[in-house]
Write a structure and sequence with these properties.
This is DUF3472 domain-containing protein. InterPro entries: DUF3472. The protein is mainly beta and about 300 residues long. The protein is built from two helices and 19 strands.
């Protein structure tokens, strides 16, 4: 689709007002203004965020851990490849301006609706552990919470595994995340304690995000494969995830999508990517439950 077509599409979406949501309308207006500013570019000025929602094999079972793998095939600076998203946070790898890193974030009580400056101390997510190579801090902008950024020299073409565990407490919940190059030792990134008690994980997803959106970032393509994903139930058994649903951020751009290639899930966005509306929204893969054993995974 040409830049002019995107401009026309943005005008249509703005005029029809997808919902009476002032924040969404303001976001679309800013996108439209930026598209006008960058209309001389070959491709749209940024790549829209694309996601895969992983369907739990048995929704009646409590899940206490998520596992996912990622292999980045195409990247550019200022890209976030989130590998495990869940109801109160996300973790993954970034092609950061200061170098490659792993990142793990968990929201405060109130989630994405918070203004960082006004979060009561008793509602804040607490850092229990930070990897010695990493730095933990507070974040705001899209809600508020705690984040840990760890320098991590991930490479295009290599597969990396992520593990997230939930530990319910009488008052609060502990979330712990690890990363490892496939076949190499695990590294714990961080552990957090939230004030809300939860007895299970929910909302398993991944995404690819262009977080700079400066015109140049939209001229590059991003592509990530997710070779294997599984969930662990309360009895300690791992079950493979085989069904996914592709979505795109409610932005006016559509040059991003997810799907299945060579038997694994993938997400792609940016220059030269086929429009979301032309691609399947639901897809499935075949995975073996026995590929993952608890004995090979860290527990604390």
């Amino acid at each position: 689709m040409t830049t002019i077509s995107y401009l026309l599409a943005s005008v249509f979406l703005l005029s029809t007002a997808l919902s009476a949501n002032p924040q969404r309308e303001q976001r679309h207006r800013k996108i439209h203004e930026s598209m006008e500013k960058h209309k001389g570019l070959k491709f749209p000025y940024f790549a829209p965020s694309v996601h895969i929602g992983y369907q739990h094999p048995d929704k009646n079972q409590k899940c206490l851990a998520y596992y996912n793998e990622i292999k980045v095939a195409k990247t550019t600076k200022h890209t976030y490849f989130a590998t495990i998203g869940f109801d109160v946070g996300y973790l993954g790898i970034q092609d950061h301006g200061s170098g490659p890193l792993a990142i793990f974030s968990v929201w405060d009580k109130g989630g994405g609706d918070n203004n960082q400056a006004s979060v009561p101390e008793e509602d804040k997510t607490r850092v229990l552990y930070t990897n010695s190579k990493a730095k933990s801090s507070r974040f705001g902008g899209e809600g508020s919470g705690a984040k840990t950024m760890m320098p991590y020299a991930w490479e295009v073409g290599k597969t990396y595994a992520f593990l997230l565990r939930l530990t319910p407490l009488e008052k609060g919940t502990i979330y712990t995340a690890w990363i490892a190059e496939k076949g190499q030792p695990w590294q714990k990134i961080a552990s957090y304690r939230t004030v809300v008690t939860k007895d299970r994980l929910s909302g398993f997803y991944s995404f690819v995000e262009d977080y700079r959106r400066d015109g140049h970032t939209g001229q590059k393509a991003r592509l990530a494969y997710y070779p294997y994903q599984a969930v662990m139930t309360a009895d300690g058994q791992w079950t493979a995830v085989t069904e996914g649903r592709g979505t795109i951020a409610d932005d006016v751009l559509q040059n991003g999508h997810s799907g299945v290639k060579n038997g694994v899930f993938f997400s792609q966005s940016g220059a030269g990517t086929a429009d979301y509306n032309t691609m399947p929204k639901r897809f499935s893969v075949e995975h073996d439950d026995k590929m993952l054993g608890s004995s090979t995974l860290p527990k604390n």
